[in-house]
Amino acid sequence: MKQTLKFKKTLVLLFIGALSLTTSCSSDNQDDSKQTPTIIGKWHNYKRVENGVTYTDTGADPISDLNYEFQTNACIITEEGEVQNYIYKVDGDYIKYYNPKTEALTGSEKIVTLTKNELVVVNQYNDDELKYFKRL
């Protein structure tokens, strides 16, 4: 009987040891370079290219003061002091903007580039207009 009890204790200890090895060795260490960049954050439009002509926020003909702030499910667009609020969804390569009261689609922009520090979008109505944003 002592041997059976000792054998059961040994089996339980082996099982607990094996279980702790499999659960404690998860890969929480992710390489930042492999993570998908997120659109959430504040972005400043520093350059626009319209019909091949480049406009910057510091050039002789500066672009307007345009900022996007993407929150978890809301987007605040500020341009020349005017504030517009939207609900947004990223659908594939597109950012779709919806009226927060009616939830009607009001516009969209195609994401050309999204990195940790830069967002480039093309206007839905004019594919000759690119907007370049840097993360604030």
Please provide a written account of the structure.
About 12% of the residues have low confidence. The chain has an eight-stranded antiparallel β-barrel with strand order 1-3-4-5-6-7-8-9. It has one helix and nine strands; from the N terminus they run αβββββββββ. Strand 4 and strand 5 form a beta hairpin. The longest helix has 23 residues. It has 136 residues and is α+β, with helices and mostly antiparallel strands.
Give the arrangement of secondary structure elements.
Blueprint: H1 2-24, E1 41-50, E2 53-56, E3 66-70, E4 74-79, E5 82-91, E6 94-98, E7 105-114, E8 118-123, E9 129-135
Antiparallel strand pairs: 1-2, 1-3, 1-9, 3-4, 4-5, 5-6, 6-7, 7-8, 8-9
Radius of gyration: 26 Å
Content-based structural category = alpha+beta
Number of separate strands:
9
Instruction: Summarize the biggest pleated sheet.
Output: 8 strands, antiparallel, barrel
Mean pLDDT: 81
Query: Counting H and I runs of at least 4 residues, what is the number of helices?
Result: 1
Q: Detail the poorly predicted runs.
A: 11-15, 17-28
- The main sheet orders its strands as 1-3-4-5-6-7-8-9
The helix/strand series, from N terminus to C terminus, equals HEEEEEEEEE
Distance between the termini: 71 Å
The coarse silhouette is: globular
SS strand fraction: over 45%
Residues in helices, as a percent range: 10-25%
